[in-house]
Amino acid sequence: MAVNLRVPAPADLHPVAGVELGTARAHIRKPGRRDLLVVRLAAGAASAGVFTRNRFCAAPVQVCREHLAGDGGSRVRALVVNTGCANAGTGQGGLADARATCASLAALMDCQPAQVLPFSTGVILEPLPMDRLTAGLPQALADCRPAGWAEAAEAIMTTDTLPKVVSRRVVIAGASVTVNGIAKGAGMIRPNMATMLGFVATDAAVAPALLARWVREAADASFNRITVDGDTSTNDSLILTASGAGALRIAADSDAGAAELKELITGVARELAQAIIRDGEGATKFITVQVQAARDEAEAGAVAYAIAHSPLVKTAFFASDPNLGRILCAIGYAGIDDLDVNGVDLFLDDVHVATAGGRHPDYREEQGQRVMKQAEITVRVCLNRGQAQTTVWTCDLSHDYVSINADYRS
Amino acid sequence: MAVNLRVPAPADLHPVAGVELGTARAHIRKPGRRDLLVVRLAAGAASAGVFTRNRFCAAPVQVCREHLAGDGGSRVRALVVNTGCANAGTGQGGLADARATCASLAALMDCQPAQVLPFSTGVILEPLPMDRLTAGLPQALADCRPAGWAEAAEAIMTTDTLPKVVSRRVVIAGASVTVNGIAKGAGMIRPNMATMLGFVATDAAVAPALLARWVREAADASFNRITVDGDTSTNDSLILTASGAGALRIAADSDAGAAELKELITGVARELAQAIIRDGEGATKFITVQVQAARDEAEAGAVAYAIAHSPLVKTAFFASDPNLGRILCAIGYAGIDDLDVNGVDLFLDDVHVATAGGRHPDYREEQGQRVMKQAEITVRVCLNRGQAQTTVWTCDLSHDYVSINADYRS
After folding, report:
1. Pairwise CA distance, residues B109 & B281, whole Å
2. CB pair distance less than 8 Å for B56 and A341
3. Percentage of chain A surpassing pLDDT 70?
4. First CA to last CA across chain A, in angstroms?
5. Does residue B266 carry a catalytic annotation?
């Protein structure tokens, strides 16, 4: 059961001029489900991406990096995504499969293989079923249409219980601008660039160099701030496309509307990232961890992730049990060697839980109990030793997480 | 259900001359169970300890460090341990409680408070029930006897399902030597010095400076090599006592029998550490993770702990599902930036699973399935880039881990 995750009605999903999406049921792993997606981009679209830092990165991630190198991002004409198989841990054969996927789609679209970006998600260490994937491509391509966003979000799901799709249309600098995004992911989530797959597109024109910087900064403010289980996937990818089919044209940060468009894009990325947590494997709670007054952002992040990764903290949230000493324990082992624990304040929503190295004198169990029963909870840690802060979003650890991951392949 | 954890029969537990143990039912948290332990040491015993690096370390850990400072270890006459309350995250009040515990026992024993080492384990952020603890001390002291090891191991349990106690008696350098140890712990286990509580005692005499070094080295080869959930506790403590009541006397590493005694002590510590994993919260599998041919021990450890902490790897073991790509994924995000994944070999017991960045050509699912069904499994990773190696022991992640930690306080 996802936590307060809203799936927009199809009528609320605006098309993005210059972007068409089509899906197919290719039986990559399971029969009958949409599992193949093609995104067709108009000529003139610019794309940029960020990818996992996992050294066992998937074959499609390696091919994406090659195809985006230099000014490759300005020539991309299509994205192709399969679910059911990650094409990771597949060696040279996997690389050949990812390249063959691009070549097959390029032949159908009459473009170059290097103008196609491939993505895969699913089980690691197993080869792609290339015959079935290739057979599905014409159908997905034929299905391409501007209104394909809802089916696209569905086609990339793995253990997701709900599709993640966000659509925003506003007026910026006098021009109507649309930003849409889809994402998938529920487990193996501790993105370290972004998560597989986030795809955000706008109809504005954005200069390629700017786009490349914006996608990194948007990832840092969204997908790089979430964790379900601390496992950085082999396939994390976030792609940002500016089709240029709309009226707004941005060449530099100082252009009219640049700041607004960047914030709009970042907001869509953040909502998608939070959607992944709301639908985290087995999630019953959506937890925001804020660490404030840290000496630098690195130590704020270390404390936030120590809390967000602790199985003991996460099971306490699952149980709605204010066993909050576990949070102090996680702060204590976060690796800040000179931390003065007497300076640490811990809050649960509006409740002041701990101060001066121990329980706050006014804290009462009932207060903690009240907050722990909520579906959305903010843990706020004030280190009182500097000006830096960070925020991380996570979920609880439930029986269903174990069930889902014990049964994933079966 | 602990994994192949053997509890010795009382007849197999040798006494350690100079060491007496007594317990009481003090109703620290739950009525009717042994929850208070006093260990009385003969005059002349030397003790040394290693403690958690968690910054929110418990009040008793702070007091132990004070009492062992300088040559304090040569004057220790008693250890006092309570379960049910960790006395951690308890600020100045908790420190006063730990000191008062030492003072109360010292008054009963006619020694100084600084000659008592206090230990606590249980719930964090709650105050010690000092009245009940103090009331139990005379009973535990009166119960002290050389044959008290089994009850002592029982009295320090929290979520442990079985007591952990090891006893060895051998002849070294012509003298009979006994080394016994007890430990507790099942969750919040990723010791970063040692785990609460390990207590190892020998009747040999060991020079205090040597003892202090041996306890660190024994911890590094045992308690610092295990993880259940990656949570470094606030209360981890390992104490090594040499009573000197026996015939063997060791003043330096070069003395006859020194190497044998040190290995005996380390072996007892290792067996206790492994016992904690065998009885890890919800454990159904005992997993040995060996990382070999690493450039240095730090990177070997990083890879071993990435595997041993991955919830996805641990749930796959629970399910006996050879979803072994998850192990490659963990190796990939372990933080070795220049790792060539094509050089990595992965073995599951005798099965060669992965090589050259992908699945080994001879690997068959049935082979992985066969090993995954065992209760004891060795994961061996060969990085093929150096001479360093390390071994870490861990367990799987099961439904019972979630149940135990969702219900711990209730």
Report:
1. 37
2. yes
3. 98
4. 21
5. no
